[in-house]
Amino acid sequence: MSASIGIIGGGLTGLTAAYRLQNAGHQVTLYEASETIGGLAAGFDLAGHRIEQAYHFLYKTDEYILALVDELGLGDALTYHKSSVSTYYGGRLFPMETPLDLIRFNPISLIDRIRAGVTVLYLQRVKNWTSLENITALDWLRKYAGRAVTDVIWEPLLRGKFDRYYDKVTMSWLWGRVLQRVDSRDAKLGGEALGYFEGGFKTIIDALMTPYLAAGGEIRYQSPVRQLTHETDSDRVRVDTVSGSQQHDRVLATVPSHVLARMIEAYRPADPDYFERLERIDYLDAVVQVFATPQKFTPYYWHNINQKDSPFVVFLSLTNLVGQDRFNGLNIYYIGDYVPAEHPYMSMPEADLKARWYGELGKIFPDFDQTQIVDDALFRMPNAQHIVDIGFRQTKLVDHQTPCPGVLMCNFSQIYPMDRGTNYAVRDGNRMAEMIEADLKARPNARAVAALQTGT
User: Fold this and answer.
1) Which residue has the higher pLDDT, 216 or 124?
2) Mean pLDDT score of the chain, rounded to an integer?
3) Separation of alpha carbons 180 and 82, rounded Å
4) What is the pLDDT of residue 244?
5) Spatial contact of 180 and 44, defined as CB atoms under 8 Å apart
6) CA-CA distance, 432 to 410, in Å (whole number)?
7) Mean pLDDT throughout 150-159?
8) Residues 29-65: pLDDT tens digits?
9) What is the dihedral of CA 97, 121, 160, 40, to 10 degrees?
């Protein structure tokens, strides 16, 4: 039985669900507020090469997206590469790839270095993550890793990742991050193995959207949704956008929680607690600077910037991971930071922000020459990281079924305790397609029943 499905948000959760439902014979319309699809993995052209607006890679344990890669026949386009990690602290760059590197990390004492390593080994063996959700990462680390290890290694990363919420994040979140990275180690490569597509993540996005569009699926770009309402007379959902309205049998919203609350505001009296949960979740925005240059001024892929008062938290060289050949000898670099919505980074002129970040980069890497940059781009991404604090599961998680009949929601806050990422986005896209199909079979609306009876 074919149904009309509306999907709000063109990230990988929405794209996967759209692909599944269109292939199942439904008529799907995808509403995307921006000019591009892909969400945080959306691509753009830099110096003539297609890459992502925000740095992305796959772990070898990413079972859901890897299954989709195989299904779409993209196995040959995905290759794995040995990662390399460093920490910048005290005006120096330290390798952080092996236990021996940690032993050599002399900003802390030898005893503290051993304690840091033992703590990570312990976390790898923790199975019951619920025992970690009632203590903050900062408090847990200070207790078990020690204050020196926390102050030098962990707290700067928490501050950079979570800004003013650095001391609120639950330890269960950090456990998930540690486990994910450790499980992706590859003995043959001699370290952490990260996957990247030939042609970037646009490769998988195109592979999803080509059959979707060929089967009659529709994408409405620059169509932010203002309101969702259930039409009682037709038992359908009306989607109101800036350019008009359309009715669907079911709607899936993959937007941030507080954005969904605004869309279905009329249903607050029906379930006030649901709305309170949606609006309790705090988000940070991401700011990412990408540039291309013939210069190679670092041997590492990933650089954690642990320097106090640094204007950004992470710096990485994509070409140190995947090589320069695919970029005609250019080096591709990313600078990234997470900030509150009201932070100056979200509104200051691009030229001012670039000057500040490039200036800092010159302090870290004296050989860096800004004049050799051949292309660059700056992206500001709202609601890029949610805050997983104590009590998150009990007071902030919500059901996929919203108080508005016919409207389901799914966003990365529901991935808990793991962090958001493309693997879980694909998993949830699959789940939501299955849930919508099951709901349609269990509760077909009047229009669908009539169509079934007439054979149309």
Assistant:
1) 216
2) 93
3) 15
4) 93
5) no
6) 8
7) 95
8) 999 999 999 998 999 999 999 999 999 999 988 999 9
9) 80
Q: Rounded to an integer, what distance in angstroms lies between the CA atom of residue 413 and that of residue 385?
A: 9
> Which residue has 């694909």 as its token pair?
426
Round to whole Å and give the CA distance between 321 and 299: 10
Tallying the residues shown for the chain, one arrives at 456
Tokens of 50: 């297609």
Q: CB neighbours of 83 closer than 8 A, spacing ≥ 6? A: 97, 191, 192, 193, 194, 301, 302, 321
Task: For the chain, report the end-to-end CA distance as a whole number of angstroms.
Answer: 9
Strand 407-409 versus strand 250-253 pairing type:
parallel
Peptide bond into 107 cis (omega under 30): no
CA neighbor of 7 nearest in space, from 275, 241, 281: 241
Taking only the tens place, the pLDDT of each residue in 354-389 is 999 999 999 999 999 999 999 999 999 999 999 999
Q: What is the DSSP string of 375-389?
A: EEEEEEEEEEEE--B
Per-residue pLDDT band at 184 (split at 50, 70, 90):
low
Token pair, residue 8, equals 């709000």
- Assigned token pair, 141: 């680390």
How many whole angstroms separate alpha carbon 124 and alpha carbon 104?
22
Residue 160: half-sphere exposure toward Cβ, Cα within 13 Å: 23
Q: Give me 297's structure tokens.
A: 């001024």
How far is the C-alpha of 420 from the C-alpha of 404, rounded, in Å? 25
According to DSSP, the β-strands at 218-220 and 250-253 are unpaired
Q: What are the residues whose beta carbons fall under 8 Å from the beta carbon of 439, sequence distance 6 or more?
A: 250, 408
